[in-house]
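JOB MANIFEST
job_type = single_chain_structure
chain_count = 1
residues = 331
[input]
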Amino acid sequence: MTALSAVDQYVIDIYCHAVRHGMIESLDKTALELGMDPGQVVAAINQLMDIGLIIRDTCNPTLYLPIGPDVATALLTYPMEREIYQRREFIARIKGSFGTLAQSGALNANLAPATPAAIERIDGGAVLKGFLKESGDACEKEIIVLQPYIEDENEFDDLLQCFHVPVDRGIRLRIVLPHRCRSHLRSRAAMKRLIEAGAEVRTISRVPQSLMVFDGELSVLGCGAADDCVVTRVRAQDVVKFLIDHFLHLWDTANPVDVAEFGYAEAADSLQQDIAKLMAQGYTDEAVARRLGMSVRTCRRHIAALMGSLDAVSRFQAGVRAANSDLIELA
């Protein structure tokens, strides 16, 4: 594999050209625009594909699409990260065994294998990704996922990529995402790939925390902001059952994603209900946007549409008419 340090300047120039334009449609046109020899462009494209910075479009093999450096790095380093994760798991088992031995004092006793902790913290980064890969590979029936939107699109794509291998093996995947994923091009592309592979995807207005459950037995729960998230691995069956029930409640109220019709149209009723409830509770436009995970501009567009559909001239009037029309339920 080509080392990054061995990349020539003309290869970097072609990669930057692909990023600026979003793709490379014609090698000859690219050579003309950059003042290069066509053969040089072909060699550079091949080198970039070896590194993982450019891939062919699956629908149109004549198009070359640039991949973010962070994603390419993750693909290149995953085998090493997986080995690191496996070694850490082995170290943890050794420490658990010797810890039990030290506490009991039974130096000559036959020790049973250490029982994994019912609830334990997981380090982020490579260890978490390795754990998700391992759990997905070991999964036999189903994976269920609640996933808030991640502002870093490369990180979001990288997370969803963890579920492609299980889905390709026929494992059922049900995933709930926030409505805002419908309006982002990269999020829509990621959802489209999962759905086409066989996954079931639905969206709701707000996904508060991250949750993944493998075969109804092992779960990963993420709490807190994305930049300070506490990740916990849960094996306690009563807790896992509670988390599954929580997922199923949200799943039943979520809106299915139709791969042929992305956007907010399918989720319009759900979104309007949530906006009407928050307006009736006195939230400002900024607070409503923050609660629903969208920009203030987008939120105000939806509020304007809601007020228009209710023929209301003020937020207060919209709240009253929403209640009278059963758009929201009053306690």
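[summary]
The two ends are 63 Å apart (CA to CA).
The longest strand covers residues 172-178.
exit_status = 0
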